[in-house]
Amino acid sequence: MFDTSSVLSTVKHRPWPLPDKPWLMTQQWKKLLFAHWSVNSDALLRFLPSDLELDLWEGQAWLGIVPFEMSYQLRYFPWIVRFGELNVRTYVTYQGKPGVLFLSLDASDLFTVYMARVTYSLPYYEAKIQLETVDSEIHYQSRRSRGHAVFQGRYKRVSEPFEALSGSFDHWLTERYCLYAKNRSGILCRGDIHHLPWQLQKGEAVIKECSMADIHGIKLPENSPVLHYADSIDVVIWPLETLKG
User: Which own/partner pairs from 119-128 qualify as long-range (CB within 8 Å, at least 24 positions apart)?
Assistant: First the structure.
């Protein structure tokens, strides 16, 4: 899908070295919106596996809802899989390594949903997702196949691309290089990822309907979310690593 060696050779921005084991797949994330709300920490604690801690910005927890278009290719396989995806995520840390914890991931490809649940122990769900570009806007609709989990809205970029400064709030929200999950045996695992620094743009969005936090028992505040847009990013993914607390 892209020049993996070029991406892997650019590492100065990483908070820790690349893994010393073979990577598993490459991914491309396109037409992506980061929508973030500050939420009560207590609402998130019940989702955290033992030994994980919430990663807070100035004492405040944040929840992200992230619609985008996904494509991936397993190493040594020629096939590229493309579909719409919608993530609900928060931010955690373990032994000094900050990362992402997914509350849910909706995808419109059933094979991906099944394989991600089995191999990565991630809470994927099948959904019907429609995504199209109308003029300069992305029109996005996701509806989970079972249960009332819906996101419907439109979003667009409203600034030139920029790289977030290290230590800034924009950087804290987006520059994450691992995910955490419990495997099928209940053991905490970490999955490393790598990409070049995000080329972020300020975003605008009209969210017509969103129950993606409600299904987790989390009420979003009435104030507008913090919005970022990213046109595309190339990502390298490693297998899960079992952690010992």
Answer: 119/240, 120/181, 120/191, 120/240, 121/181, 121/182, 121/183, 121/184, 121/189, 121/240, 122/179, 122/181, 125/149, 127/84, 127/86
How many whole angstroms separate alpha carbon 66 and alpha carbon 160?
20
| Residue 110 identity (one-letter amino acid) | L
pLDDT exceeds 70 at position 125? yes
In the numeric block, the tokens 């804290």 are attached to 172
CA separation (Å) from 142 to 105, 111, 207? Answer: 11, 17, 12
pTM over 0.85: yes
**Are 57 and 39 spatial neighbours (Cβ–Cβ below 8 Å)?**
no
Q: What would the DSSP string read from start to end of 14-65?
A: -SSPPPSS---EEEEEEEEEEEEEEE-THHHHTTSPTT-EE--BTTBEEEEE
Q: What is the pLDDT of residues 25-36, one digit of tens each?
A: 999 999 999 999
Q: Which residue has the higher pLDDT, 201 or 184?
A: 201
> What's the CA gap between 81 and 1, in Å, rounded?
11
- Would you list the domain boundaries of the chain? 24-228
Q: What is the pLDDT of residues 178-200, one digit of tens each?
A: 999 998 888 999 999 999 999 99
> CATH code for 24-228?
2.40.400.10
**Token reading at 17:** 């070295």
**For residue 24, what are its two tokens?**
């598993």
Q: Is the pLDDT of residue 116 over 70?
A: yes
Write out the two tokens for 190. 């970490």
